[in-house]
Amino acid sequence: MAEQDLNLRDILGRLPPSSETAHLSVDLWPRIAAAHLARQHRRRAQRWTAVAFAAAAAFAAVVVVPPWLAKPAAAIDWQARAQALELQLNALSAPSDAGDVVDTELARIDDALQAAYDRGAAANELAPLWKQRSDLLSALLSARQQQVRLTRI
Amino acid sequence: MVLARAQRGDMQAFADLYRYFGRACFQLALRILGQRQHAEDMVHEVFLKMMDTIRSYRGDAPFGAWLKRLTVNACIDQLRRQRHSGEDDAEAVFANAASADADAAGAVDAGSLLARLPPRARAVVVLHELEGYTHAELAVLFRQSESYSKSVLARALKRLNALVTATPLSAQVLPWPNKI
After folding, report:
1. Count of CB contacts below 8 A, A vs B?
2. How many domains does the structure of chain B reveal?
3. What is the reported pTM?
4. Do A7 and B176 touch (CB under 8 A)?
């Protein structure tokens, strides 16, 4: 058996493949080369696509997205500001000739605010009134600090 | 130098490498896989892979040995893809191969002799007996134990011995073309 094994290995080592299968197809290399070039073109196209996509994404990030992503300007709480100004005004001693104009204007705004609250107005309707009140109080505070009198033009 | 040009992606260098190694690659694949079409498909696959990965070839081993390793790995992967259920067992490798002995009295050459073995047994015989792979290396390639390839090899050699004994082999052996 051992002798047969050696013989078999020797035979296997010397045996040629069948003559009909000894040669490669002549068109095998052209097919391999064509497949390689096609893969290269495909990869190059994929790379360009990726680059174009990245460029488009970068462009969008720089030019398009910020306005959408930008946080809206922080809404000013005109009501709180007006109330704070009123406290500051109250802390100052009122001049003897406190302007009627200012009182009248404040009264008008307060009436408007009251009416708005009474009819259940929305916040976007109330905010301009509170802003008017805040602006008026701010001007009044500034005038009192500089000891000048507010007049309406 | 051809290899340096190939590593730069030169198609003419790849063509030269194919001219030097294509046939050897094909014959090895043919011996392992047993079918001409499968062997050509393997050469196609191996050369495409070689062209993709040749930049990673550092020259630690001869290029021919590196390419042969690529070929063997691709062939074993192919056998794994074709695997029929139960072929992880050496017994099952031979279970459906009985009919292969039917024309044992026919002409014998390497192709027809090895073709009478089941695919995995043929791969084990070629790699161990002709290419010098150890059972430890075969175990890694087939993702099996060493005893698996030992068992498959013993059965395959027994079968081939029976074929050789039944055939007037000395009159059938064809010489290598390059020895004429």
Report:
1. 91
2. 2
3. 0.59
4. no
Cβ–Cβ below 8 Å for A16 and B109: yes
What tokens were used for B7? 């590593």
B51: which chain A residues are within 8 Å (Cβ-Cβ)? Answer: 36
Q: What is the pLDDT along chain B (180 residues), one digit of tens a residue?
A: 889 999 999 999 999 999 999 999 998 898 888 888 999 999 999 999 999 999 989 888 899 999 999 999 999 998 888 765 555 666 666 765 554 444 444 555 666 778 888 888 989 988 988 888 999 999 998 888 999 989 998 888 888 878 777 765 543 433 333 333
Residues B120 and B49 in one domain: no
Domain spans, chain A: 28-69, 78-146
Whether B161 and A1 lie within 8 Å, measured CB to CB: yes
Asked if the Cβ–Cβ distance from A11 to B39 is below 8 Å, we say no
Q: What is the ipTM of this complex?
A: 0.73
| Residue at B180 is within a domain | no
What residue of A is the nearest CA neighbor of B153? A5
Range of the structural domain that residue B136 is part of? 86-169
